[in-house]
Amino acid sequence: MTPPASSPSLIIDARALSKWYGQVIGLNNFSLQISPGITGIVGPNGSGKSTLFKVILGLIKPNVGSITVLGKSPWRNSDLHSSIGFCPDYESLPVDSTGREYLTLIGKLHMMESSALSKRIKEIVGIVEMSKALDRKTGGYSKGMKQRMKIAGALLHDPDLLILDEPLSGTDPLVRKDMIDLIKRLNKEHSHNIIVSSHVLFEIERMTHNVALIYRGRAVASGDISEIRNLIDRHPHNIIIEGDGTLALAKILLDQGYVVSVAFNDSKSSLTVQVTKPDDFFNGLPALVDMARCSVTNMYSLDDNLEAVFKYLVGR
Amino acid sequence: MDLKRVIVGVSALTVHSTKKLLLGKKVFITILVALFVAAVMGYAGSQSRDPANEGTNLMDVLILFFFMPVMAMIFGSSLIRDEIDDKSITHIATAPLDRAFSYVGYYLPLAIVVSVSMVIVTSVGMVAFFGQHSHGGDALDIYIAFVVLVTIGSFVYSALFLAISVLFAKPVLFGLFYAFIWEGFIGSLPGAIQNASIKHYLRSLGSGWVDSGDIHAWNQASDAWGSGVVLLGLMIFFIFFGAYLFREKELA
To answer: What is the tens place of the pLDDT at every residue in A256-302?
Structure first.
């Protein structure tokens, strides 16, 4: 179906984009429309998320296709950067500068007057909770502090659109929770439109229900996360069960219609169960465990790695 | 084009990059070069029986001929390239300032820092050599001439090496080739081929300004005004060329 003509309400309107670097394809006939709010871009490493962001920012030019960002073409359009804040997934802070020097440079490049800039820096480091580290060299920051400072740099000029590339990557669980809360707050209280990427679906799910799945340079699905979850739920799930008496449990599981296969792992106390209806499996498991008189000490899904799901979605 | 935005942006970037260059590790290279020049020219000065000519020759060969392009290469070939390679250029490339003007914000601090470094090196060499002799007025004339020459050279060589750093992924290799093979060897060959080097035009300017040494007696010098125009033209060309390359460059 041909998407409707570019609407001013769309933040991003990408049509049939392709970008390749020599033999490597970054984006492959990629089409996606993004509306205001928080949108999650989910895909495994190397799927094309960062390439998409570089095209959105005009850092690279697509070989084929067209894209508009806030209604404008991004390539060679530096004016557009007044409306976009970008937090990359790599280390980009100048290590010899303090946080204040970094933010001052960003502010000056965005034409902020000195007094207004000082006030804004104070405000923004308060939002990202970096006030105490503002005058320290960024080279000495922890991973979480660097992420916060990069977000501060992206937010400083109060952009319409905030692009956060893997902001949770490499951070510890506490920092992740803080980051997720911050991203939600930025949208809810400060009205920033946010595009955030991750390779972990459940992290995105905690920020937004509006997601696009990218795999091998293509947008394979987009929309409400529950619809995508339903799509994913039709894909056989691999679940590991560990505990005592798993042999009896394995025999009972094989009789269930939703179980595709059961296999013992290296340890006899560990099973890999492949199921077609995860909800039925999780609902019925307590009764089956009782019936087998076994004790389950640990259970987890192998499908946290989205690679399997994406392969399913693209029919590989 | 918003002129105010351009001026504010270029100024901010100039201040930032100047500070980065002056406080960075490369400033130790300036100190080492100054110490080396002080040792060489200090010893030569202590042994010299014809200070005006020998001092001028040393300033010519050691500073203008050798260290001038080398220093510009060391500072210039890494300024933008390092930021492209470590991706810290992202916050410049995503700022609302046309990249061609951002490039000027890199060029100005580079030229300023290379000029300051070369003026320091020239001053150190001058004091080390002529400080041991009583050539007050002549020495001052030689000093002023070489300070002006290294300042002009800094702006031209900086424009060249900054453009090279955008054009090539390994600018140091090309920079070494240019500084040593082209400027050093080709620029010293007899005949018209040496006109194809920046050094030729710098020395041509200097031959009219200095009344001593081989540079004064040099019989292959081009016209001073013509040399000035060529150097200005080269500088402008390299700045525009580098700015164009930087604007068109994909920052993957």
So the answer is: 888 888 988 877 788 889 888 777 887 888 889 889 888 888 777 76
Kindly calculate the radius of gyration of chain B based on its CA atoms and give it in whole angstroms: 19
Residue range(s) in chain A whose domain bears CATH number 3.30.70.100: 235-313
Are the C-beta atoms of A44 and A306 separated by less than 8 Å? yes
User: What ipTM did this prediction achieve?
Assistant: 0.81
**CA gap B78, B71 in Å, rounded:** 11
Residue ranges covered by each domain of chain B: 3-248
A81 and B96 within 8 Å at the Cβ level: the answer is: yes
- Rounded Cα distance, A186 and B93, in Å: 24
Q: Domain A235-313 is in which class?
A: alpha beta
Predicted TM-score (pTM) of this structure: 0.81
In CATH, what number does A12-230 get? 3.40.50.300
- CA contacts within 13 A on the Cβ side of B205: 23
Q: Which of A108, A141, A151, A164 to mutate to test the interface with B (most CBs of B within 10 A)?
A: A108
Most A CBs within 10 Å: which of B18, B26, B94, as the mutation test of the A interface?
A: B94
Write the pLDDT tens digit of every residue in A84-143: 999 998 888 988 889 999 999 999 999 898 899 999 999 999 888 899 999 999 989 988
> Between chains, do A108 and B8 touch, taking CB under 8 Å as contact?
yes
